[in-house]
Every structure is written in structure tokens, then in C-alpha cells.
Amino acid sequence: MIVGILGLGHVGLPTALGFAENGWSVIGADRDSAKVAQVARGEAPFFEAGVQETLQRHLNSGLLQVTDSIPSAVESCDVLFVCVGTPQGDDGAADLSQLEGVAITIARNLNGYKLIVEKSTTPVRTAERLKRTISRYANGNHEFDVAVNPEFLQEGTALHNFLNPDRVVLGVETERARDLLLELYRPLVARSELAGDNPEDRLIVTDLNTAELIKHASNAFLATKISFINMVGDICEAARADVKEVARGLGMDPRIGPRFLGAGAGFGGYCLPKDLRAFVRIGELNGVDMSLLRAVENVNDERINKLMHKVHEALWVVQGKTIAIWGLSFKPDTDDIREAPSLKVVTRLLDEGAYLRLHDPLALAEFQKEFPEQVGRLEYYDSPYEAAAGADAIVLLTEWRDYLTVDLSQVRDTMEVPLLIDGRNLLDPAAVRSLGFEYHSMGRR
Ligand code: UDX
After folding, report:
1. Ligand 1 centroid to 87 CA: how many Å?
2. Same domain, yes or no: 318 and 236
3. Is the CB of 339 under 6 A from ligand 1?
4. Active-site residue numbers?
């Protein structure tokens, strides 16, 4: 069986490598020729742990081939995973035009039975439309099935997530599709058996619409947890309590769990914000009251205002002040800045007349594309020490481990004013204050 991966982005490339790791022959296709050329040279087009090495290994082993011709990938492969983008449209709904484009290309190049698997995150009932589109445009009378196999990859650990899934969700309509997908995932299931797990606990075989909903509902629930703890953080702040302790206590309840209870600058990234909006939209289109999730979004939007309020309280006048920004990516271990809080905070501080000194371990190049140094009043530094030198304040926006190991007393000595606003509650307030810093964080005493 040859596996085709259509779209070599943050989902497609780790998925292609994951299947190759499991011994399958994989053809990765993307219409972006420059990206394909880069991947073919063994260079990952974005930072993702383990991707670069695994890519080189499987280009050498021959298990992975890449092409900029989607039609040729369709012709050569038995199973096609559709991993194209489903960005946000103007009204908040998912823009499914790339998906439709790929469906038409698949239809026109069918040359035998194919299983077409939707991996991109899509609103419920998209797979039904995918199927209808392929039928309409099909070239001849070839059989095909459509299935849904949502990705649950987190950026920064995508390859690890693929190889150690907490769940495998298969939405299928036919036995043939189910059997093919089970065959493809057999190495992963075998591995969890070896680990002593019951594979049934991690595998869900269901219908197309349910599979799509599992993905949207999962991301909406994660977003809800984060906005919930941010709301609790605001109460903590008013009551002089500590949201980190509250979250620890909450998370000890196994019905709640400790993860995704980190209060701070709110959630960003390519997936959570857009998937939440698309879920709200599809719910409302179906006449469902989605006000719960609208509130989740509102709480998140307010986080930047809360953070800016702290900056104003601490600095009083922002105009003319020099501010170091520590952390630009939307979360640690990635160079991705899409919907990162840093984009809004930097825009607002520049609008207010601040001078900015920016640091991030990985995302400087990406950020520079949006904010070149030529726009003025902003400079990029490879070291957090250099970024902080001469600053009136540091604003920490991403919880990189690097900032935990910075020698803060050295930083303090080079700052104009030792003031630190921790938008991620990364540091220990007592320890930072004992070094002579004025320290503010989100929802803590
Ligand atoms: C998310 C989903 O987790 C993943 O399952 C899906 O496949 C893709 O979308 P990702 O975008 O990589 O993954 O980011 P995630 O780790 O979920 O974090 C999203 C945002 O929430 C980040 O900005 C992060 O800083 C923020 N966050 C996360 C918090 O503010 N608090 C937390 O406790 C956890």
C-alpha cells in the first residue's frame, strides 16, 4: 500500500514522516514547488522537534518521496490523506476552498480504487461534501471511499504525538475503508499492545460526522479550560489568591486533570482560535446556542487588554520607554507566531511609542517577516540578556524553558529599571522579587 500525503505543512509533513517511521512507502505532495524542493533537499520548512533528522533518514531510506504534482501522487497512491489548510474565512467559518480544490484534483485523476482520508480539521459534514465533490468531478467510474482521521498533533511535539497517539479516531462508511485504515495504523496499535495498553482504549471507529465532531469538540474543550482558568485567575487577582495553586488543586481531581489550566496571556496558534470560531459558526448555522463558546473566545480576547493594563499600571507612561519582549512564538518549542499574543502586544506597544528589544529562541526570523527592523523602534537580539540591557521593563510572553535558566541577577544589573511582567506565570514571584525585581504576573498575589 502506498500512502499519499497531500499538503506538507505542520500536519502533513509530520504525518508523512510518521507513516514512513512505521514502514510504509509514502509520497508527500504539495503544490508549493519551493517548499517541495526544500523538503527534497532534506530541509524542514519549519522547526518541529525530530522532523529534520527523520526527514533526511527517510529520503535516504527511500520510504519518503516528495512531489509538487498532486495528480501524480493521486495516481500512484492507494490511500490519500488530505492535509491542506482550512484557514478562517471572513465570517469566522472555515474556508474550505483548498479542500475542494484537492477533491477536484483527486476526482480528475482517479485511476482505480482510492481511500481518501480527511485529516485537516473541518466542520462537521465536510467529509460528506468531499465525497459529493469527488463523485461529481470523478474521471470515469472508479470506486473510492471517504474517511475521516483527525489529527491531534501539537506543534513542537507533532512527530512524537503521531508515534504515541493518545487516541486514533477513524470515521468510516465502509468495511473496506475501515480495514485499510486499521492496517495502516496496525504498527501503532501493536506498539501500544507491547506497552501493555489495551489498544481498544485508544481506538475509536465511528461514522464520518462523529469523527469530525470529536476533533472540533476536543479543541473547543481545551480552549474552554484555558479561558476558565483565566477567568478564575482574574478572581484570584482581585481576592489576592494564587491561580497557580488553585489550578494545582483543581487538576488533582481526576475528573478535571492538571493540563491546560495555565493562566496567562491566553491561547494562540493556528488551530485553537480558528477551530473554536469555526465550531461556533457551524453550531450557530445549525441553530445551536453556542454562547458558552462565544464567552470562551471573549475571555481570550480580553487577555491582551489585561496584560496591557498591567503594563500601563507598572510603567505609567509607555511612550519613550524601552521594553524587552521575551518570547514571540505562540508557545514554546516552535517558531510559529500565528495568532501569537506577541503580535498584538508588539503592535500596541509600538503604537503607544515604546522602543522594543525582542528575543525568542526560535521565532525571531518569522517575527521579522511581520515586523522588520526598518519599521523603527524595534530591535532583535539572539540573547535574552542583550534584549533586556537598558530596558525599563521585560514583558515575558512565551514560557520558554530558556527563561527559567536565565541569571536574573545579571539581567537586573544591566536594566534601567528591574521590572518584569510575566504574562505566562513562568517564574517564581518570591524568588524574582528577592533579587530586587518589581514583578507582576497573571492571577497571582
Ligand atoms: C492544538 C491542540 O492542542 C492539538 O490537539 C490540535 O491538533 C492542534 O491545536 P497547538 O496549536 O500545537 O495544538 O497548541 P496547544 O499546545 O494546544 O496550545 C494552544 C495555545 O494555548 C498556546 O498559545 C498555549 O500557550 C495556550 N495554552 C495552553 C495556555 O494558555 N494555557 C495552557 O494551560 C495550555
Report:
1. 17
2. no
3. no
4. 271
24 and 169, same domain (yes or no):
yes
* Count of CA atoms in the C-beta half-sphere (13 A) of 15: 30
Pairwise CA distance, residues 224 & 260, whole Å: 9
Per the structure, the count of domains in the chain is: 3
- Pair 342, 372: CB distance under 8 Å: no
Calculate what percentage of the chain has a pLDDT beyond 90. Answer: 93
How far apart are the C-alpha atoms of 349 and 440, rounded to whole Å?
A: 18
Residues 138, 225 share a domain: no
Any atom of ligand 1 within 6 Å of the Cβ of 123: no
Mutate to test the pocket of ligand 1, among 331, 335, 396, 442 (most ligand atoms within 8 A of CB): 331
Q: Which of 157, 160, 272 to mutate to test the pocket of ligand 1 (most atoms within 8 A of CB)?
A: 272
Q: Whose CA is nearest to atom 20 of ligand 1?
A: 267
| Residues 226 and 270 occupy one common structural domain | yes
pLDDT digits (tens, 9 = 90+) for 315-336: 999 999 999 999 999 999 999 9
Same domain, 134 and 233: no
Asked if residues 38 and 45 have their Cβ atoms less than 8 Å apart, the reply is: yes
Residue 165 Cβ contacting ligand 1 at under 6 Å:
no
- For 98-138, how does the pLDDT look when each residue is reduced to its tens digit (9 = 90+)? 999 999 999 999 999 999 999 999 999 999 999 999 999 99
Cβ of 442 below 6 Å from ligand 1:
no
Using the mean position of ligand 1's atoms as its centre, give its distance from the Cα of residue 307 in Å.
19
What is the reported pTM? 0.95
Closest C-alpha to 138, from 147, 150, 149, 146: 146
**Grid cell 469527488 in the structure block, residue:** 134
Instruction: Give the three cell numbers for residue 186.
Output: 496496525
Does residue 232 share a domain with residue 199?
no
Residue 357 near residue 325 (C-beta atoms within 8 A): yes
For a mutational test of ligand 1's pocket, the pick from 159, 246, 271, i.e. the residue with the most ligand atoms closer than 8 A to its C-beta, is: 271
Domain containing residue 47: 2-205
Residue identifier of the C-alpha nearest atom 13 of ligand 1: 154
Q: How far is CA 398 from the centre of its chain?
A: 14
The residue out of 267, 298, 329 marking a domain boundary is 298
Q: Could you tell me which residues are beta bridge partners of residue 395?
A: 325, 421
Query: For residue 392, what is its C-alpha cell?
Result: 525599563
Report the separation in Å between the CA atom of 220 and the middle of ligand 1, taken as the mean of its atom positions: 11
Closest residue by CA, ligand 1 atom 21: 267
Residues 153 and 230 in one domain: no
Cβ–Cβ < 8 Å for 438, 419: yes
Alpha-carbon distance of 399 to 326, in angstroms, equals: 9
Q: Which three cell numbers stand for residue 41?
A: 533537499
